[in-house]
From TrEMBL:
Belongs to the AHA1 family. Residues 29-153 form the Activator of Hsp90 ATPase homologue 1/2-like C-terminal domain. It comes from Abyssibacter profundi. InterPro entries: ASHA1/2-like_C (IPR013538), START-like_dom_sf (IPR023393). This is ATPase.
Length: 160
């Protein structure tokens, strides 16, 4: 049985921002965000990514249960290799009853800014609605992005 999304809380958009400095080029950082074999080293357990606008951006934290804790069905909305990546996003199982049935879903934009020591990655996650349950989902996601960026930096440190 397919559920029909009901009316959603209004989008008031308290936007999430996450940043990290990396000692790698913007092109390599972009690849780390878009190549499944690299995404699984720092962000997720499995990934389906069709590189380009309109392509899949599906990450799976529990591949044996793809309908939960995944971004199944999400698409890439902007693509500029080494510079910009944007995609729709789905929340984990504890928030999916409200966050994964709204239109539009939340949205992530990642920019890759080259500098002489590597690059800066800036992530903006928008589309959050205004209610206590949405506030919980947003705070959970802010921590998750922070942990993911920490894991990414640790992986790169271990490689040098």
């Amino acid at each position: 049985m397919t559920s029909t999304p009901g009316p959603a809380a209004p989008v008031t958009d308290p936007v999430l921002h996450s940043n990290t400095e990396l000692g790698i080029s913007a092109a390599i950082a972009f690849d780390d965000f878009t190549k499944p074999e690299l995404l699984t080293q720092w962000l997720t357990a499995a990934a389906n990514v069709d590189r380009g606008v309109g392509g899949r951006y599906e990450l799976f934290w529990m591949p044996d249960d793809p309908k939960n804790n995944s971004t199944m069905g999400c698409k890439i909305t902007a693509w500029a290799p080494g510079e910009l990546l944007a995609f729709h996003w789905k929340s984990p199982a504890q928030f999916k009853a409200f966050a994964n049935v709204v239109d539009p879903l939340t949205h992530v934009v990642v920019t890759f800014i080259a500098h002489d020591r590597g690059c800066r990655v800036h992530l903006v996650h928008s589309g959050w609605r205004s209610s206590p349950e949405w506030d919980q989902a947003r705070l959970w996601q802010a921590r998750a992005w922070s942990v993911a960026f920490d894991q990414w930096r640790s992986l790169l440190s271990a490689e040098t």
